[in-house]
Automatic annotation (TrEMBL):
Its EC number is 2.3.1.179. The keyword Transferase applies. Belongs to the thiolase-like superfamily. Beta-ketoacyl-ACP synthases family. It comes from the Bacteria. Coiled coil: none annotated. It catalyses: (9Z)-hexadecenoyl-[ACP] + malonyl-[ACP] + H(+) = 3-oxo-(11Z)-octadecenoyl-[ACP] + holo-[ACP] + CO2; a fatty acyl-[ACP] + malonyl-[ACP] + H(+) = a 3-oxoacyl-[ACP] + holo-[ACP] + CO2. This is 3-oxoacyl-[acyl-carrier-protein] synthase 2. PROSITE patterns: KS3_1, KS3_2. GO terms for cellular component: cytosol. The lineage of its organism: Bacteria, Bacillati, Bacillota, Clostridia, Eubacteriales. Pathway: Lipid metabolism; fatty acid biosynthesis. It comes from Desulforamulus aquiferis.
Length: 413
């Protein structure tokens, strides 16, 4: 018999706040974390805005020397994992470390390190490249660093499916626990892509908003005047446990994860299938896995990137799956506030769903001003909504056609 799986702790590093309480308060207050880029001078870039993490300090979780040997994406992950472990009141001396795993998603990995070392190579030659270059850059190192810090010897996996990466991480952690291959999994996603090369690449692809004069209003999912996504960064980590293990140690329980769907458009390297079939299939798979009917879902945290092409495809996919029930759903995109955190998006939006279920509170889609006839669902415009949320879904879609849907449910013993 499959094990039930619950979320017992969460840690957040985000553009709207670090720490779960700060994050949730900002999000439900409609606070935007988007501003002009400060990491480098963006004057020559068509997009000059992003959702940067502010005032990040790893000193409470990472030794200074070790921190210098980590790329920013690993630092974010280790700090968020530490927060999640504390939030779960997890006593590491009392757990079976061989049955405690780590699964982390990242779409890009150590881009900042990669760029820095390319400059060293060009300007100073190959003999000056850091011996830590490779272990700082590779995308699996966030999961590796978490395991090393906390001595976690169970399955250690990195998922890399572009902007669906941490959605897959959460889903794979769920399945690992469900089949009793672990007692606990630290899982989530991390990304630190606000670098000169990454921003230039997305600018070249013409994927991002150029509304540089109005940073906080630039990310406007489902609005008729949207003109592209806004990049974000950060990390979100969860402590997932089998219900049996959580109850045995008397853990708090935020919510239960009950469904996971994963599919591929098999259509194009960047564009979504205009029919939304892959996205719809992921949602259908998650509902089937959870043994839920569409009518039992109250809230969807949409992928909702604020791109002209992507948003109506997701709306069409939701209508395909939910039929008449689609009009009764609350659907919001928190990317309107955090920006698009790429490989970390699925995890942070999974955390949003967990909190929505726990608090019966749905965060808004801010900057929703002009309705788009192609996007005609209830997008919880501009103000959080107090409502009953028994079941919440989150969608994550990535370049290459990757689609993930996760289903979370109010915990009942």
């Amino acid at each position: 018999m499959s094990k039930r799986v619950v979320i017992t702790g969460m840690g957040i590093v985000s553009p709207v706040g670090t720490g779960l309480d700060n994050f949730w308060t900002a999000l439900t207050s409609g606070v935007s974390g988007i501003a002009r880029i400060t990491r480098f001078d963006p004057s020559d870039y068509t997009t000059q805005i992003a959702g940067e993490v502010k005032d990040f300090d790893f000193s409470g979780y990472i030794d200074k020397k070790e921190g210098r040997r980590m790329d920013r994406f690993s630092q974010y992950a280790v700090v968020a994992a530490g927060m999640a472990i504390e939030d779960a009141s997890l006593n590491l001396d009392s757990i079976d470390r061989e049955r405690t795993g780590v699964i982390v998603g990242s779409g890009i990995g150590g881009m900042e390190t990669f760029e820095d070392q390319c400059r060293v190579l060009v300007n100073r030659g190959p003999g000056r490249i850091s011996p830590f270059f490779v272990p700082m850059m590779i995308a699996n190192m966030a999961a590796g660093q978490i395991a090393i810090k906390y001595g976690l010897q169970g399955p250690n996996i990195t998922t890399l499916t572009a902007c669906a990466s941490s959605g897959n991480a959460l889903g794979d952690a769920f399945k690992l626990l469900q089949r009793d291959d672990a007692d606990i999994v630290i899982t989530g996603g991390t990304e630190a892509p606000i670098t000169q090369l990454a921003v230039a690449g997305f600018c070249a692809a013409r994927a991002m908003s150029t509304n540089n004069d109005n940073p906080q209003g630039a990310s406007r999912p489902f609005d008729a005047n949207r003109d592209g996504f806004v990049m974000g960064e950060g990390a979100a980590m969860m402590v997932m446990e089998t219900l049996e293990h959580a109850e045995k140690r008397g853990a708090q329980i935020y919510a239960e994860i009950v469904g996971y769907g994963s599919s591929c458009d098999a259509y194009h390297i960047t564009a979504p299938d205009p029919n939304g079939k892959g996205a719809a299939n992921a949602m259908k798979m998650a509902l089937k896995d959870a043994a839920l009917s569409p009518a039992e879902v109250q809230y969807i945290n949409a992928h909702g990137t604020s791109t002209p092409a992507g948003d109506p495809v997701e709306v069409g996919a939701i209508k395909n799956v939910f039929g008449d029930a689609a009009g009764k759903l609350a659907v919001s995109s928190t990317k309107s506030m955090t920006g698009h955190m790429l490989g970390a998006a699925g995890a942070i939006e999974g955390a949003v769903c967990v909190m929505a279920v726990k608090e019966n509170l749905v965060p808004p889609t801010i900057n929703y001003e002009t309705p788009d006839p192609e996007c005609d669902l209830d997008f919880v415009p501009n103000k959080a909504r107090k409502m009953n949320v028994d079941v919440a879904l989150t969608n994550s879609f990535g370049f290459g056609g990757h689609n993930v849907t996760l289903a979370f449910k109010k915990f009942k013993a």
